[in-house]
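During the reporting period the student researcher (J.K.) took over the structure-prediction task from the postdoctoral fellow and processed the backlog of single-chain submissions. One of the processed entries is reproduced below for the supervisory committee.
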Amino acid sequence: MTPPPARRRRPGVNGTAPAHNLPRRGAVRRAQAITTYGVGSLIAVDHESFIVSGLDEAEQSWNRDESPRIHERRLARVLEVDYFRLPPASDDTSRDGLRVRRFPLMHSCPECNDLQRHRDFNPPAGRSVCGTCEVDLVPSRFVVACEAGHLGEFPYWQWVHRSADRGATTAGQCGGKLKMRTTGRTSSLRSILVSCTCGQAPEVSMEGSFRRRALKDLGLKCRGSRPWLGASALAQECGLPLRTLQRGSSAVWQPVLKSALSIPPWSDGRADPLAEHWDALRRYDEREHVKIYLDGVFKGKCPIPLDEVMELLDAEREEDPDSESAPTFDHRYRALRNKEYERLRAGNDESEQSHEEQFVCETPLGDQSVLDPLGVAGPMLVKKLREVRALKAFTRLVDAESSTDSSEIPLSESPLRWLPAMEVHGEGVFLRLDEDRLGAWEKTVAVAARVDRMCTAHQRVLEQRADDPSRVVPSPATPRMVLLHTLAHVLINEWSLEAGYPAAALRERLYAADDMAGVLVYTATSDSAGSLGGLVAQGEPEVLDRAVRSAVRRAEWCSSDPLCMETEASGAGGINLAACHACVMLPETSCEHNNILLDRALLVGTPENPEVGFFAEILHP
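J.K. obtained the following structure tokens:
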């Protein structure tokens, strides 16, 4: 999505001079600086292309005065930072914003067909036009990247001057100038022709440039270019194979997002004044040692009573994962989810909390036994919640959802004690599935066979996308996970009709493991649609009973049936089964798993095997 052009603004606050002389190029929503246009991503503004700068102190890419701190201790601990920052605001009082750099530098002129670096066109200051033809320049459609996250210019000169006996020689030796034109006959790469005025090489098309070995056959390897870090980042010889990508491809940048709900005892904000000291405090087991540390830091005026500090330290240690060796990030993040699941089951009554409490979860007043025939148990009304979603890192050419630490690219060259994040305040409904009924259903041979096909397809896709198969993480597909995931999707679709919420304003949060079988559907927007009470009302047992039955009946039929239900594989790489945009898929902002690992047959069954469906009994009593 192309951001809108920047609005006209005053030179600065109260008419003062701006904080810098850099021109404004566009505007994006605050949340997009985390999910869409984060550090290292490419952003198109009108007919120009830029890359978002890193977060190094020397680069000053974020104005810290316009990036308020937010705190979420549980998530900060897992991500090994002290706090988080909101992206700089974009309003009439803003004097700064996100810093960007022009990338790619290679541009072409549609009039004279020259293909060269932007500065070589001698454009007027502040404009991106050909100095000779005075027409808008076109940024290169193609870039190259490697799995280590490096990003570079497409090697046009080597591509034109390749030959069987000469290979790819050093760029610029021929003394000619590159030209690019399109024939307009087709929309394929065959219609994009590149040539050199030296006459030593024939005009060639871009066809074949996306082959996996296309650049390797030219003898080219990654040179470690990191344009988002600027000139201060030294390029290091990487040596990994390069891949050609479209500039707007989703493979160029995928965010690694991690989130957490604020739950007691951290959800009332009382621990925030000590945000930068918890890691140090954890080293002390004795009360006296904690008191000595606090007295030394705050000169005897600690903002939190010592008793509360000790309670918070005890609560934090309870979340430590049970592991004899040093816990990995996945273990710590799973422990975070486990604690949320326990708190959602236990609840947190509003009457027993202060006004500052940001997590209120109560048991509905209605008779929950009406849900027993559905296999649904323990619904909870989450009347207040706060979610902090942080940008941990990003990936290129690697699926961010299944990435490992080694394939994730940090947001700065030097270590940071903070990360960019967004906070969402809203409400939700939490429900669980009956463990006994779920356990019996999971053991069904037909169910295991369907999920095994999805798991195999997903694992194959993950291995195909990785140059090193040994670094691929296992697919998370299990019968329990796919069932909960699909159920969350059909409930979101149902509540978008019944409760008046747009589907994009709702979000799922899955708790699927051997000891967890729950799903939280909550408002995922920070505007007025976040906490109007309409979603909480859907959690009352009688209303929830009608909603689940209606959602399952809707899932029984798709406008693409019988093709949708009978397909052997659907979606990219065949990762889904009976799932399409006409039945269960959602806006990607609402889904934790990018609309993969879905199968509505696990809800309703198939004509041949009705017992595959967990809710088949309510459809065929």
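The committee noted the following: The chain has a mean pLDDT of 85.
J.K. will present the remaining backlog at the next meeting.
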